[in-house]
Specification:
341 residues; alpha/beta; Spore Coat Polysaccharide Biosynthesis Protein SpsA, Chain A; eight-stranded mixed beta sheet; four-stranded mixed beta sheet; 13 helices; Glyco_trans_2-like
Length: 341
């Protein structure tokens, strides 16, 4: 096992999205404090040559700022979970900052993070608020946060395990303590698209998940998911959309992970996580399914019922809204988001 050096690795699981990939590199270059290295694992997309060329163009620019850019071409399509695991493994520095290849860093993102990790050097993971944007980060759609103050979520702090999903469901800007994560590496949950939730469940039961007060990244909305090309994903997931079966598979995996890790540490993290998925997170899923056909909507309902996540009044109400109002239901979701801001 390669020993971790003190410092930061920015880790990018790259797949297609050439334009967004270069925008991400620009955002890293423009930060007030740069990482020690940028590690990119390209997972066999059709745009590999273009992505590699952009990486080569930026390598010398980052070297001038003492930041090493490493572009790795995976021999086979590993899929999301295995690619994240590989990024953690091949990184050289203690703090591995994951970011999707269509998200962006904010100017002081890494400075804010460094100040926190300097004070919490044994923390297992770090999460963050983030700005939601579509095409232009200077025209944000909103601000996503789960806490008004800096915090550490853990079983020892008597936090609710619902904070595991709230803090780590979105991968952009999540920080992994590489020394802590390497011994936990497993292929068991490949295809779940939630390797970070596996790590977060472990973090919650051990040294905790830190949460920053200020945002460090921008999370892009609107791009379709590209999961489904790897062998571990192709049976369920379809590139370009979250199908009902795909979403149910993801949430079923979260429940299985929480049961496994809860048993490992003798901590009940399953109950609150299940309620979190059934109530708060169902809002996001039904919002994403505004305007879909009745058949797709009924399939979503059926899949949620199979994993017992349709028993609460909230998913039933949201299903009804989508069923009767179709695309006009978007007005309801926008109103709720505006009130919640």
């Amino acid at each position: 096992m390669k020993v971790s050096l003190e410092g930061f690795s920015v880790a990018i699981p790259a797949y297609s999205r050439v334009k967004e990939f270069e925008e991400l590199l620009v955002s890293i270059y423009d930060m007030s404090f740069l990482p020690n290295e940028i590690v990119i694992c390209e997972d066999g997309s059709k745009e590999r040559k273009e992505l590699s060329a952009i990486g080569s163009q930026w390598k010398s620019k980052f070297q001038e700022k003492n930041c090493n850019l490493i572009f790795i071409e995976n021999e086979i399509n590993l899929g999301y979970d295995a690619n994240v695991r590989k990024l953690i493994e091949v990184s050289s520095f203690k703090w591995v900052v994951l970011i999707g290849n269509d998200d962006l860093f904010l100017k002081d993102g890494l400075s804010i993070l460094k100040e926190f990790t300097d004070r919490n050097e044994n923390i297992s993971m770090v999460s963050r608020p983030f700005i939601r944007f579509s095409d232009d980060i200077n025209k944000p759609l909103g601000f996503s946060t789960i806490d008004s103050k800096e915090n550490i979520y853990s079983n020892s702090n008597k936090s609710s395990s619902k904070m595991i999903f709230r803090s780590c469901g979105f991968v952009g800007g999540l920080v992994i303590n590489r020394n802590w994560a390497l011994p936990l590496a497993t292929k068991k949950y490949d295809g779940s698209l939630y390797y970070q939730i596996y790590l977060a469940c472990n973090a919650f039961c051990t040294n905790g998940i830190g949460y920053l007060k200020s945002p460090t990244v921008g999370g892009r909305t609107g791009n379709p998911p590209l999961f489904g090309s790897a062998e571990s994903e192709s049976e369920i997931h379809i590139p370009g959309a979250y199908s009902a079966k795909g979403r149910a598979k993801m949430w079923k995996s979260v429940l299985e992970i929480s049961q496994d890790i809860g048993t490992k540490y003798k901590v009940d993290i399953y109950k609150d996580l299940k309620k979190e998925l059934m109530v708060k997170q169902s809002f996001h899923v039904f919002e994403m399914n505004v305007g879909v056909g009745v058949r797709e909507l009924k399939e979503l309902k059926s899949e949620l019922k199979k994993i017992e996540l349709f028993n609460h009044i909230v998913p039933k109400f949201l299903f009804t809204i989508n069923y009767f109002f179709g695309r006009n239901a978007l007005i309801f979701y926008r109103l709720i988001r505006k009130i919640a801001q």
